[in-house]
Amino acid sequence: MQFSTATFALLGLAVTASAANEKLCFPAPGQKNNVPQSITDLDDQVKVDWATKLCSQINFSTIDAQSVTTDVADGVDAPEDGKTYGLNLVTVAVPDEQSCVSYAAQTLTADICPSGGAFIDLDSAQEEWFTIVALD
After folding, report:
1. What letter does residue 120 receive in the DSSP assignment?
2. How far, in Å, CA of 20 to CA of 121, rounded?
3. CATH no. for residue 77?
4. 23, 59, 109, 130: least CB-packed within 10 angstroms?
5. How far apart are CA 68 and CA 89, in angstroms?
6. Which first-to-last residue range defines the signal peptide (predicted)?
7. Does residue 56 form part of some domain?
């Protein structure tokens, strides 16, 4: 039953998508957010800066999935739990560094996906997944 419900939900998403791009956020509505508030409340530019640095490490000549994570030295400490947080970035078929940074800027803002999310181009194979993670 869960499989068919998930299938219908996925089909509904595909049918109702009115634009060439889709944004998904983590955590999904109703799920617990494990990222401390001080980190989700970071200025958007901090998150975009993390993504910009990570995008510069991607090999854009391949369409294979690639994953990079913020260095601990570039992370931000959360007073709530004493951990250092940064960004994990996964790209699939993103064509160039500028697109990578642009997708991050469109997704990682406080009013869109403050804890992370995904940018998916429904007209191509491009995907970019952002997750704020504890680095230590």
Report:
1. E
2. 6
3. 3.30.430
4. 59
5. 5
6. 1-19
7. yes
H or E element that contains 10: helix 2-16
Read off the pLDDT of residues 5-22 as tens digits, 9 standing for 90 and up: 333 333 344 434 445 789
- Which residues of the chain are under the pLDDT cut of 50? 1-18
How many domains does the chain contain in total?
Answer: 1
What's the confidence (pLDDT) of residue 75?
Answer: 98
DSSP strand pairing (66-69 vs 116-121): unpaired
Whether 52 maps to a domain, the answer reads yes
Task: For tokens 């975009």, name the residue.
Answer: 48
116-131 per-position pLDDT tens digit: 899 998 889 999 999 9
Q: Domain of 76?
A: 20-134
Asked, for residue 90, whether it belongs to a domain, the answer is: yes
- With contact defined as beta carbons under 8 Å apart, do 89 and 54 qualify? yes
Contacts of 100 (CB under 8 A, 6+ apart): 51, 55, 58, 60, 89, 91, 94, 128
How many residues are there in the chain? 136
